[in-house]
Amino acid sequence: MRILGITIPNNKHLDVGLTCLYGIGISRARKILDDAHIRRDIKADALTVDEENAIRKIVETMTIEGGLKREIASNIKRLKDIKAYRGIRHMKRLPVRGQRTKTNSRTVRGNVRKTMGSGRRKAEKT
User: Could you tell me the residue range of the domain that residue 23 belongs to?
Assistant: First the structure.
């Protein structure tokens, strides 16, 4: 089964298989199947053509994949343009949602440091 050019895996339950579409998580996938009146534990290769079309019709009304990525990128660009705090954090490639930076996000900041111990070598046993 293919939706918007992406193949849904046949070996997984449909509620998990739909999550391979960007923008659809497990809860949204279950809501899609409930709206289409399809069991969650059925696999993609066991669907009838009518059931596939029902899922496809519901999914095509949602903003997913490329459209969602464009929308997210434009939201970030807007924050950068208006020089909002979050936009400035995006520009500096720092954590945006209030995470600490003293001990975490070191690789993003670019200064990868070695873990330091006590600063001296252990005494050799004789």
Answer: 2-60
Quick check: is 45 in a domain?
yes
Is pLDDT at 47 greater than 70 in this prediction?
yes
Q: Same structural domain for residues 54 and 79?
A: no
d(CA 35, CA 75): 30
Residue 53: CATH number of its domain: 1.10.8.50
Q: What is the pLDDT of residues 72-92, one digit of tens each?
A: 999 999 999 999 999 999 999
